[in-house]
Amino acid sequence: ASGRGWAIAPAVTPPPRAKQALRRAAPRCAAGDRAGAAARGEAAARPVALEEEIVSEKAAEESHRQDSANLLIFILLLTLTILTIWLFKHRRARFLHETGLAMIYGVLMGVILRYGIHVPSDVNNVTLSCQVQTSPATLLVNVSGKYYEYTLKGEISPHELNNVQDNEMLRKVTFDPEVFFNILLPPIIFYAGYSLKRRHFFRNLGSILAYAFLGTAISCFVIGSIMYGCVALMKVTGQLGGDFYFTDCLLFGAIVSATDPVTVLAIFHELQVDVELYALLFGESVLNDAVAIVLSSSIVAYQPAGDNSHTFDVTAMFKSIGIFLGIFSGSFAMGAATGVVTALISFSLFTKLREFPLLETGLFFLMSWSTFLLAEACGFTGVVAVLFCGITQAHYTYNNLSTESQHRTKQLFELLNFLAENFIFSYMGLTLFTFQNHDFNPTFIVGAFFAIFLGRAANIYPLSFLLNLGRRNKIGTNLQHMMMFAGLRGAMAFALAIRDTATYARQMMFSTTLLIVFFTVWVFGGGTTAMLSCLHIRVGVDSDQEHLGVPESERRSTKAESAWLFRLWYNFDHNYLKPLLTHSGPPLTTTLPSCCGPVARCLTSPQAYENQEQLKDDDSDLILNDGDISLTYGDSTVNADSITSSGTSRRIVGNSSEDALDRELAFGDHELVIRGTRLVLPMDDSEPPSSLVDSARHGPA
Amino acid sequence: ASGRGWAIAPAVTPPPRAKQALRRAAPRCAAGDRAGAAARGEAAARPVALEEEIVSEKAAEESHRQDSANLLIFILLLTLTILTIWLFKHRRARFLHETGLAMIYGVLMGVILRYGIHVPSDVNNVTLSCQVQTSPATLLVNVSGKYYEYTLKGEISPHELNNVQDNEMLRKVTFDPEVFFNILLPPIIFYAGYSLKRRHFFRNLGSILAYAFLGTAISCFVIGSIMYGCVALMKVTGQLGGDFYFTDCLLFGAIVSATDPVTVLAIFHELQVDVELYALLFGESVLNDAVAIVLSSSIVAYQPAGDNSHTFDVTAMFKSIGIFLGIFSGSFAMGAATGVVTALISFSLFTKLREFPLLETGLFFLMSWSTFLLAEACGFTGVVAVLFCGITQAHYTYNNLSTESQHRTKQLFELLNFLAENFIFSYMGLTLFTFQNHDFNPTFIVGAFFAIFLGRAANIYPLSFLLNLGRRNKIGTNLQHMMMFAGLRGAMAFALAIRDTATYARQMMFSTTLLIVFFTVWVFGGGTTAMLSCLHIRVGVDSDQEHLGVPESERRSTKAESAWLFRLWYNFDHNYLKPLLTHSGPPLTTTLPSCCGPVARCLTSPQAYENQEQLKDDDSDLILNDGDISLTYGDSTVNADSITSSGTSRRIVGNSSEDALDRELAFGDHELVIRGTRLVLPMDDSEPPSSLVDSARHGPA
């Protein structure tokens, strides 16, 4: 992880290659033609060149030194945050979450950088006046016969010309927005996928998808249209200082529709809030990040044909929708695919690789990362791909890792996630002052706050109503209020907003988003505990206990509710994918039709049988709770033993997978733990006070 | 870690900010003045701007896509390497080490990139002819009234002008050399320091320092002068195509004097070679990296006054020597200081922080990293600082970490080290074909190989002879031959060579260094096993067994040998620093003079007493081996119990620390393990087949 941060400095400063180029520039002059230069070089023209070289060396060192200093600022901010977090955790203070804290420190540092530091301007800059009409990305400058390649760094408004250096400094600190998408977001999102509570996620799959897809779309359009009204108002009152189209409004809607799981869920987890609520919120916020990012890029891609731009155009709209579906499904497929490939590799190697957890971890890490790069290289959305890659990895690959590697990977991604998160939040605070093109417009801001409130409401309440028609275990009004309240905006909204701050509209959107994030994280994030208690939402629920408590009827109902959506998939997964890709799950010989017995036998890993055996023993405790499960295990083990008489196996499989689904829904974790299939998640754990205890518990004694 | 790699792409490509700048460029034209622009904007001039915007969007996406693809190449190379390493480890193949393997893959990929791929040239570049005499780092171009800032990327030789794009691609792959120093080297060096075998290191401190400092200096000057002769010959035969001064030769000497621990030591560890040899080689190669890097930078800083450059100048030389001492001691101090600070923080917090290993790990990681940045920001050498920071962390901070965090940090840095190492080596292979300014000169190359051979010989044999006069347990001739043979060049040499490839001389040096690395890693690295057997160096030595085997007399002698150097320091450390900075070590109350009893009591952590108690119990097994130690523990625990009667404590302390030194030298690890003080190192472990088993063993069952 160490390297990550360094990414920033090179990204935002004149690329270090320039330093070398500078060094290169001088001596070449001296070298002249290759033949007898050595002789001449020493005598003539050398001192000048040498001098130049020294000067440029100094410049290079100076800039490098400044980079280090800038990065050091962030490191110190993080360190400070960690120390204070520790204090908070120690004092059990919940009024302010670590992310809010990081932002505060960021703001303070931003003030210092903006008003405290002044860099003396450099004489080394040369202003060329030339007759090019466009400003190309690459510029070849012919300096007295030698060609130098220059890259475009950005436009400078004329009044800034005199203090380029200061802006230089500030720009260095406010580093390239792409860094967020390429370095900071991936680990966060991957970890979210990797640590997804699969059981609760699947139990509420229907509702979660509804909230994530429909909900995000709704709120996007609600916010978009409200903002458009707001912009129209501004135009009338003459407050508008630039172009602001409906597409921009929609984009804004998409940006601020991405809710952030971090803050609230951290508190939920600590308080062990009702698992239903937890699952709904987590699932929604993870998925709607993915939805929002694809949505925004497809809105950007909305380009009406012909000159009459920014008027409504059906074909263009359908094109955008097509793009949305294309990118989303593409990224999804890519992520899942890489996950499966990794699972296959690990399946075939790691049994023997067990001795080398370092290699396992390295491979796992590299494969997960290459998902992101692959998706980006193919023009899909890397972040989305990484999310689904994470889910797949957790579902399949994780089971093939050795215990050692399971913990290593988990801890590694936990750390990356932690650092990236706090970095982003402290950076948010920083940009409030260091970002140079802020554009705060009262009307717009007020409108925006009003809009996100309405948008969230239009997302939660109607959908909950509709879902409750289908759900047997309703989503209570208090839960609905809580979901309404818990709609914080965070890293994703910020990253989307800062990604492009070129136009006037985008700048205004960015500044507003920043304020929204601050407000929601500080106020809503801080008020979560209070809100929970005043909504009488039960806390301190042990997820497993809660489950054993669920009456048979209700479990059937939840099953029925979720089954229609993923029963098919579940059976396929449980009977064919799991056995093919992991060492857990039933042996193929029991799941495949009798005709392909030999194939099945050679494809099934020996451990699968062992697992079967295990099942029988380890479920004794389940038997106490539930009769039909013991039954199930009865005959599933029977047919595991009597593979030869596999004429009847098909029917039995039907049953056993049915009941397996049952168990998955009801006692999923139990069973999975036993089979060693389950991802032991920090979040998925039922022990107070925090996820860390969990890992500590699994850590070496 | 995910981020680390990404660092590369932004660093080497036109900074992504440019993409945004491009987007920015267009709409601004449309925006016009702020007042009623919105109204006009839509009607007039919009399509053009929009079009431009789309074009530039496309360009930006394209370049971003290419970055991802480039990085993907490296990730795949690493993945491939890991898979093959697994195969090797599985087959117990030793003829080729993973690093050598990585290089081979790199070479193959380099060939493909160089000759396989052709990028169509872009029309988007504009060539300006203008009358600036220098090529400044920053260029302000006035494009029809708007100012754009450009940064220098490098010079392009006129014949490359037509296929800029291809070079662009290649340059993207051969990314910025600073990346090595800022991203890839630090984790490697830190890990080296963190995993230093402290006991054996201290036992041979004298010899190691001699080899590292004198030895490196000697070989640097030997190589330098040989190469100067070689260059003179080339000049006579007219093969020389540019300036090549004696300082360049010296620089080359410094570059190739840094030996690489990785390959050989991996094999040594696997074969459990004689610990003496291991300690000597490891210590030397770790320290001489530091020496070489500082040496080279102080040679670069050698700038004679006046016009008669590159002639001998006493003041300048002394200035260089001063710089060497200054930078080295400065970096050392800074590294040690940060380490101590971290230790203090951890000492005061981590006892309570124990519940949150994530925070611990994060803090530890950030502090270690900030060492590097701090040193760089202050103009010292970050890599050197990181090395000593690592040693300090291992010595003090590590003891304050919870067991969980100890493993987390160890595994984290292990992984980083592993990835960085293989990345560098596969990158080396890549550059053989993708680097564009290679300059292979047969004479120079032959001379270089001859020189490094002589230089190594002039380092090892005379020094060993001198050291043997002092040492009681001589360094046998076969060990000397082995050290001679084991002088591989690796990551550091490469990083130093590629850091600056501006001048003709540097380019030639780089190409030659590359060949030297390839040759030594493949031939010497591959031949290690054979060499060991033909030199009759005993393998399969269990370091601890070996120690119990050491006769009393010899241990005394080794003690005497090493004592004069660090007895003083050891006593200070054992009596004052350890108790102050860690929770292990004897309570201050026993070590401080009686007068400061109260201070001592309040400064000593309660655990220290517990540790004392532990000592008594846990050393029962040692007592079996060695009499005087049980005695020692006898009275040291006595005076631990009788703190009140601390009139005599001073004397006893004298003893106990004496004997503690004894134990440190003889049974150090044993005792430290028991006290939980010792860093459980992969390298420090005596179980086959590889370091990974070690961590696996400590991993959760």
Automatic annotation (TrEMBL), chains A, B:
<dbReference type="GO" id="GO:0005886">
    <property type="term" value="C:plasma membrane"/>
</dbReference>
<protein>
    <recommendedName>
        <fullName>Sodium/hydrogen exchanger</fullName>
    </recommendedName>
</protein>
<dbReference type="GO" id="GO:0051453">
    <property type="term" value="P:regulation of intracellular pH"/>
</dbReference>
<dbReference type="InterPro" id="IPR018422">
    <property type="entry name" value="Cation/H_exchanger_CPA1"/>
</dbReference>
<dbReference type="GO" id="GO:0055038">
    <property type="term" value="C:recycling endosome membrane"/>
</dbReference>
<feature type="transmembrane region" description="Helical">
    <location>
        <begin position="412"/>
        <end position="433"/>
    </location>
</feature>
<feature type="transmembrane region" description="Helical">
    <location>
        <begin position="71"/>
        <end position="88"/>
    </location>
</feature>
<dbReference type="Pfam" id="PF00999">
    <property type="entry name" value="Na_H_Exchanger"/>
</dbReference>
<feature type="region of interest" description="Disordered">
    <location>
        <begin position="1"/>
        <end position="25"/>
    </location>
</feature>
<feature type="transmembrane region" description="Helical">
    <location>
        <begin position="504"/>
        <end position="525"/>
    </location>
</feature>
<keyword id="KW-1133">Transmembrane helix</keyword>
<keyword id="KW-1003">Cell membrane</keyword>
<keyword id="KW-0739">Sodium transport</keyword>
<feature type="region of interest" description="Disordered">
    <location>
        <begin position="681"/>
        <end position="701"/>
    </location>
</feature>
<keyword id="KW-0406">Ion transport</keyword>
<dbReference type="GO" id="GO:0015385">
    <property type="term" value="F:sodium:proton antiporter activity"/>
</dbReference>
<feature type="transmembrane region" description="Helical">
    <location>
        <begin position="445"/>
        <end position="467"/>
    </location>
</feature>
<dbReference type="InterPro" id="IPR002090">
    <property type="entry name" value="NHE-6/7/9"/>
</dbReference>
<dbReference type="InterPro" id="IPR004709">
    <property type="entry name" value="NaH_exchanger"/>
</dbReference>
<feature type="transmembrane region" description="Helical">
    <location>
        <begin position="362"/>
        <end position="391"/>
    </location>
</feature>
<feature type="domain" description="Cation/H+ exchanger transmembrane">
    <location>
        <begin position="81"/>
        <end position="533"/>
    </location>
</feature>
<keyword id="KW-0812">Transmembrane</keyword>
<keyword id="KW-0915">Sodium</keyword>
<dbReference type="InterPro" id="IPR006153">
    <property type="entry name" value="Cation/H_exchanger_TM"/>
</dbReference>
<keyword id="KW-0813">Transport</keyword>
<feature type="transmembrane region" description="Helical">
    <location>
        <begin position="479"/>
        <end position="498"/>
    </location>
</feature>
<feature type="transmembrane region" description="Helical">
    <location>
        <begin position="179"/>
        <end position="196"/>
    </location>
</feature>
<feature type="transmembrane region" description="Helical">
    <location>
        <begin position="208"/>
        <end position="234"/>
    </location>
</feature>
<dbReference type="GO" id="GO:0098719">
    <property type="term" value="P:sodium ion import across plasma membrane"/>
</dbReference>
<keyword id="KW-0050">Antiport</keyword>
<keyword id="KW-0967">Endosome</keyword>
<keyword id="KW-0472">Membrane</keyword>
<comment type="similarity">
    <text>Belongs to the monovalent cation:proton antiporter 1 (CPA1) transporter (TC 2.A.36) family.</text>
</comment>
<dbReference type="GO" id="GO:0015386">
    <property type="term" value="F:potassium:proton antiporter activity"/>
</dbReference>
<feature type="transmembrane region" description="Helical">
    <location>
        <begin position="323"/>
        <end position="350"/>
    </location>
</feature>
<feature type="transmembrane region" description="Helical">
    <location>
        <begin position="100"/>
        <end position="117"/>
    </location>
</feature>
